[in-house]
Design brief:
about 10% helix, 14 strands, Flavin reductase (DIM6/NTAB) family NADH-FMN oxidoreductase RutF, 4 helices, oxidoreductase activity, acting on the CH-NH group of donors, NAD or NADP as acceptor, single chain, three-stranded antiparallel beta sheet, Flavin_Rdtase-like_dom, mainly beta, about 35% strand, Pnp Oxidase, Chain A, seven-stranded antiparallel beta sheet
């Protein structure tokens, strides 16, 4: 099968998200200029550089009360900071509960019963029980082709890791089983690893 996206695919649901998988989930927490907290998951998320450490996420929808984007991007425009919270398998229902199109006045931490903690290097809340949190300062927001497509880049200024997931000096993801986004309504969990040596090792 071949199709041109502009011509449509003819399938019951768009296969693009099922092709580019698995995708890590950035559970993005932000705070607006008035101090209201927001929490929402984004599956267009990844690390993009080591030195200095940098991450990105993309927002691809808009809310009527947010001038062509969503709460996360709007808040980051106001404050210049955000936090990426890593999603463990056991937090899947809480993460999903924060994915709704809530009004800007709703605090998703409270809505979903998620405990908050303060960040150390930025003025933002983080998910207290997340396996890891990446505190970020905005470097740039790029508007992508499409009505509401924005890529947000940030430099990581602080990293939290839960001590119970640091095993023999390594951050062991199999201990918390990170959640990954697949296509459609599907998710996957990472609970097994294997290693490959590079040819020049």
């Amino acid at each position: 099968m071949f199709y041109r996206p502009q011509d449509g695919h003819g399938l019951p649901r768009n296969p693009f998200n099922a092709i580019v998988t698995p995708r890590p989930i950035g559970w993005i927490s932000t705070r607006d200029a008035k101090g209201a907290d927001n929490l929402a998951p984004y599956s267009f998320f990844n690390a993009v550089a080591y030195e200095p450490p940098q991450v990105m996420f993309a927002s691809t929808a808009a809310k009527p009360d947010r001038d062509g984007t969503k709460d996360s991007v709007a808040n980051i425009r106001e404050t210049g900071v955000f936090c990426v919270n890593i999603v463990a398998f056991e937090m899947r229902d809480a993460m999903n509960a924060t994915s709704g199109a809530f009004g800007r006045e709703i605090d998703e931490f409270e809505q979903a019963g998620i405990a908050k903690a303060d960040c150390q290097t930025i003025a933002c809340a983080r998910v207290a029980e997340a396996p890891a949190n990446l505190e970020c300062r905005l470097t740039q927001i790029l508007q992508l082709p499409g009505a509401a497509n924005f890529a947000v880049f940030g430099e990581v200024t602080g990293i939290h890791m839960r001590d119970d997931f640091v095993v023999a000096g390594y951050f062991d993801v199999t201990q918390f089983r990170p959640l990954a986004r697949m296509g459609y309504r599907d998710y996957a969990v990472i609970d097994a690893l294997f290693a490959l040596d590079r040819p020049d090792d």
